[in-house]
Write a structure and sequence with these properties.
CATH superfamily of the largest domain: Cyclophilin-like
Distance between the termini: 78 Å
CATH architecture of the largest domain: Beta Barrel
CATH class of the largest domain: Mainly Beta
Shape: globular
Largest sheet: 8 strands, antiparallel
Structural class: alpha+beta
Number of strands: 10
Helix content: 25-40%
Length: about 250
């Protein structure tokens, strides 16, 4: 009987030791898994917060653009097109002084002189990411072109066409007039805040577009290139008489 008790005790100890080992092993596995998940989450968060940049090399000089993470659909679409070489060789087909310069029409790559551009068919649109008042049409803003509200009430963006704002500086009286137009066009939903009014007085821009188009980036270098492009001679359709081309677009960050 004594021997049997001793054997039972030994067996019980073996079970306890095995249980302890299993628990230690399980804790180790859980700790490792949690560490791995935290590492992956940290990398994803880092990737999401990286501010990507694109360089446009044009026949008038370089333009460096930073893309906003607040508009991820437009950011990712733009990066994909740049990496595919879509913008290489395209023209700035619509240029209006003290307003903006526009590009991205695929038909402009081999366009004949004087050919009307800007209405080429596209296979998709990008869902609007209008983030006003956080993002607005200050000088240097990069925004997506789109069709007018009467045929595009959701204000979806063009797949590829975008414009870079130059605009003009405003005073309070001019901004009051702009606010009246915004009230009419947006049903009073877009208000120029004191901070935004100050930006338009100090930097300039195109406030009448606010809250109606997706702003997805800004020029951080080369605003002088935008300035030089906006003053070129244009025809009756606002196309530059002398072609201004994007030689190459590159994701640099």
């Amino acid at each position: 009987m004594q021997r049997r008790l001793q054997n039972d005790y030994a067996t019980t100890n073996d079970h306890k030791n095995n249980d302890i080992k299993q628990r230690i092993k399980m804790k180790t596995l859980i700790t490792t898994a949690l560490a791995l998940l935290m590492s992956v989450a940290g990398q994803a968060q880092k990737a999401d917060t990286l501010r990507h940049e694109v360089m446009l090399e044009t026949t008038k000089g370089n333009i460096r653009i930073a893309l906003y993470n607040e508009t991820p659909r437009h950011r990712d679409n733009f990066i994909r097109l740049v990496k595919e070489g879509f913008y290489d060789g395209l023209l700035f087909h619509r240029v209006i002084d003290r307003f903006m310069i526009q590009t991205g029409d695929s038909a402009s790559r081999h366009a004949a002189p004087g050919q009307l551009l800007g209405d080429s068919p596209e296979s998709y649109k990008v869902k609007a990411e209008i983030t006003y008042p956080a993002l607005f049409h200050k000088r240097g803003a990069v925004a997506a072109a789109r069709e007018s509200d009467n045929v595009n009430p959701e204000r979806e963006s063009s797949a590829s066409q975008f414009y870079i704002v130059y605009g003009r500086r405003f005073n309070d009286s001019m901004l009051d007039d702009v606010q009246l137009k915004l009230d009419k066009n947006t049903g009073g939903t877009v208000k120029l805040t004191p901070e935004i009014r100050e930006a338009y007085k100090r930097l300039g821009g195109t406030p009448h577009l606010d809250g109606q188009y997706t702003v997805f980036g800004e020029v951080i270098e080369g605003l002088e290139t935008v300035d030089s492009i906006q003053w070129v001679e244009t025809d009756k359709n606002d196309r530059p008489v002398e072609d201004i081309k994007i030689i190459r677009a590159t994701v640099i960050k």
